[in-house]
């Protein structure tokens, strides 16, 4: 009986070749195809895996689990790697790994194969997640191992009757899920060249977006959006809906040169319409519902968690603790945010909450003022005391 | 001979009343009016100060010093309080204080008076800066001290023939300089109400901005912009120019509920067209010219320095050290950034530098690839080792 | 009927005078005396409060609650303000405030009075904690309010038949609880003078400690010590016991010039024998049970929480979140630590845990080595890649 | 003509075998032996290198450079990895690399070989430093490459007449320089076993230290110690002297399980008598000469720099910036520290400075008090305002 390997199968050329290659190496291949909201035709993929020679093919729709257990943290934690990238692919890798490990455990496979190359982040994310989930499973990286050029790979495919993709000359390398779309390669490798329009799929160019602005009201409960213009939606529905609406208005394009875990800089073009709207609204709601000390410290947690996830360390004791911290800050992040969408802009027009810490009586300069202005004298006296002592000692900055 | 007090004189009602009030208290008032790029008619202000009874009135144009010594750090340090506010007023306060202290030292004044109320940040910034510059000078805060309602103040003004401003019913409280414009009060005190158009002055609404996008190329040397579309400009010219161009395109509106130093949340509307363009371009240039470890640690410095400045601690040993750190990171932040302005959007279309650390040969997926993909195997082995050890001990996350 | 005020009553001169002073101001005084492990004679204090004129006197032993809910975090979080001070008084203030508020709520008092002066941290801690617990209660600070010199206070006491303390000329100001003892004032105000022996009470001088070292084994469960030399103890018993044992061996003296919340530096002498032993042992156990990323990030949390507590912000949303983070890291901090006590030294001689992440097979240089040394080549290649790219660009440091 | 390789030659078995092994591989070996204060007999080493077959042997005494340019930062920056390890070996690696690169450039060598194994930090430090210094030089790691067991290595040595060390059965692996001594392996690999006395060389056991305490006064200028008991010393002399004096008193033993860069935990025993005395004294002096905000932020810099150095990134733009920050904080760290050494204890008995920010008039509770206690009322009002607003909204913690 042959050893089994579970292969993360996408239906594309790399993983189709990998099925054949692994069989040649003497393994039984259990294909596994996951949907995390990218809207692939899974029946086609299923059939193709079997056609390639896989002994089984598992199709798993993990979209709900993705939004509930992973994307929800990107919202509550305002997660953005390098203050820019809302962790589209990075967020899905741990979930995909989890599903692959479940299949591997069920089918008594000896390991898991992925289709990543040897220079990206995803190989690390998959392999480290697999170690974290089940250290007895081995990781296989056929694409990295065979090390072929594109041409050599196509030759191998032709030789073994592996169907080539129709648009084999797409210049881009794309990864997509519910939370967004990542694009790299081709012309994008020149960071001084503007991304051409064909690099985008989910968003209109701002110039092509409607001439009329659209205002929406998003209602959050405990840090997560639950209704739009008073219409209740699941988080998955909300994101799918906002991807369309905000994408139509040209919202959500990101063009970033980022520092990969593997030591190189790469130019990435992302489209994250729903993410941009929801994160913008969420931050706005936090400005009135978090105390100042939480508002000033939570970013330290957010930065750390973003880096953990980017680096493939979702399943780790540190991430577990960071999640608890973030959850605990969201109890009162409940309320409404008015958001205007217009030709690429997401503008917060207003935010309100039953738990608002904004106090008009304290903030106002009208006669309703409840702030004790005399207290400021004592405050400045003490707040400025270290400055004063230092200045008395050294003679003051005007003296330098 | 009477004791002299230097008064930061704006020409507005508060400081005009303050001249009279200080004279009544028995002081000679030395008015001092500073221009930090807000474009006031200083001759008018000068005359008005003398009319009010000031014994002297000093007019100081500190715009160049403001851009060179203060705004330059907001650029090099990407400074934004709470990741949002580019420190418009907060940046000018230390410079204004410095000039006031210089006048006070020259005129042998016993102290300095400012026109701030008792509930804002600026009173703290002025008074702490004065302590830092010359601890022998006393601070006076007439507006905070008299504690009048608007009506009482107007009554006092009428009684003492102090001219009332023509548009005394402007609902807003505004502070402006070269780096931007801050607006609060009135309808803005309701954080769920969208700011009305009359709250803005430097920017078009995106809807009213030109239908044609405009691309500009900004060239930076060591972290600061030095030319625009190949035309050399001083930093002051650059900012003035970009305020107009970007403002025209609807760029630079900020609507934020922020945590003041004095313990309250307040809703602020800022307009910072040039700041938004320059900071966006600067960050983009840093993505290709800073090493990863600098790129990941500098934000810690930036956050700390932003808070120092916001809290009035520009003149302090910590700020001095933070400035050195920031300066030292900018040596190679030289190059061009292509920026597109369009109806509220600032889009970076490209970035290049003679010192780029982006290496196409390492990043590419073409046959020119110079990256050693086999190294990834060893990297993952060691990078994932703590995960593996933890997982072996506790049985793995899939086991929970 | 008179308004009631709850007074934190210690039995000392300040609070005895305060009883009288508050009665003179027209209030009924409800005295409240708390024991947090300092070992005061509470019957005497109770009677004295009534003798002074208090309408009621509540005696509360809060020692268990102190160790369980407060000191436990100082252990799990290795809490030390400025990396030095294990938060002796700062930790007790929130609990004392909580008990005072409970009494105030039960007795329908309008507010709470404490005996702190106007220049220490404790006034802030009490008043902010009271705001946090019940914002409707007013805070009173008689000692700060009357502003008397020592002589004036004694005169007032004599005039009103308030008994003076027998040793009224003790030069020190002392606060003590189960977790340690704080001492300031007198000769200690000269930071170049060594603290004289009479400044210490809980510890022998190392010179006077036994000539024989003593090794103890402390067993921790989930971050807290539960047995000593195989003898189970409650946390309270453990601390009381270790204060004696370690104090005997001269362990736990701290001499620190610290930055107070109110802007001044003050020289403090602490004695914390049990704290030093337990924190040292706890840290040692964490070195083998925490993953590297937790071990490197937890100190950020610890520093923040130490500052929160020092600054009187125990009751706050941020502290709640920090507590959750810390708790979540302690699940596997279980095991034994061998600690040697000898003339002022606490030496960890060994640490072991069923959950140890230290792996002798990976660490060893013997033939049992399980570490894959070849992986290092790939690791260094990728880990060093940003350095290499930077060096190739700029010519290398040897070139400068 | 053969390619040349510069070999970091210690005179020990590993590098002696490496000479032979590299010659067998067809290279000319340029031996290079550095002294960074460990006190080796360099003449013997020099001769031995030539005997082994090296074409040249360079002997370099880099002790002064080590203390001036490297150790000085460990002092000014209070550098300790994981708050424990004063970076003994980690600090010397960049300097040794620098000297090796200089020799390689002078002799036109193609690369540099070191004697490290494949599981430690030092291989990474050397190879990354070499990349940073001169990216054209190749790194060679014979010991890692040959991958022999101890027995195989000895067999090879015997076969090729390479003299075996007399005490070939020393169970420990030791690295030493002026700043301390690191010891690992053997019985130390059991982290529950106390290190035996033969693991130590620089320090007496506290039990064997003199019964009389010794007080010394160290004078610092701008963060560095310059005289001891009024006797001027160079930094090198100071450290050599204190290693003896403090070592005699049993000071400077560290027993730590640390997280290596390469993903494993290892148990290390360090002896750093001078380091412990100087760092303790330096910290004490900083408590009175740094402002509170510097004192609270500098540790963030220190932690980052310690990790950079530990990870072999001394030569990097981030380290350059961190050094500038640290230097800039030391301008006023000038003064005297009284330190008592006694049986393993380093006790600070006093600290004074012409630039002390400790102000007895502000700190005192006597009638000389210059602190404005009334200011506290306003301070607490404003400092406590966020707490109060939060508490009013949510009903207060006593209500939960």
TrEMBL record, chains A, B, C, D:
Pathway: Amino-acid biosynthesis; L-arginine biosynthesis; L-arginine from L-ornithine and carbamoyl phosphate: step 2/3. It comes from the Bacteria. Its main location: cytoplasm. Residues 172-389 form the Arginosuccinate synthase C-terminal domain. Keywords: Amino-acid biosynthesis, Arginine biosynthesis, ATP-binding, Cytoplasm, Ligase, Nucleotide-binding. Residues 4-163 form the Arginosuccinate synthase-like N-terminal domain. It catalyses: L-citrulline + L-aspartate + ATP = 2-(N(omega)-L-arginino)succinate + AMP + diphosphate + H(+). It is found in: Cytoplasm. GO terms for molecular function: argininosuccinate synthase activity; ATP binding. ATP binds at residues 8-16, 115. One of its GO terms (biological process) is urea cycle. The keyword Transit peptide does not apply. It is an enzyme of class 6 (ligase). GO terms for cellular component: cytoplasm. Homotetramer. This is Argininosuccinate synthase. The gene is argG.
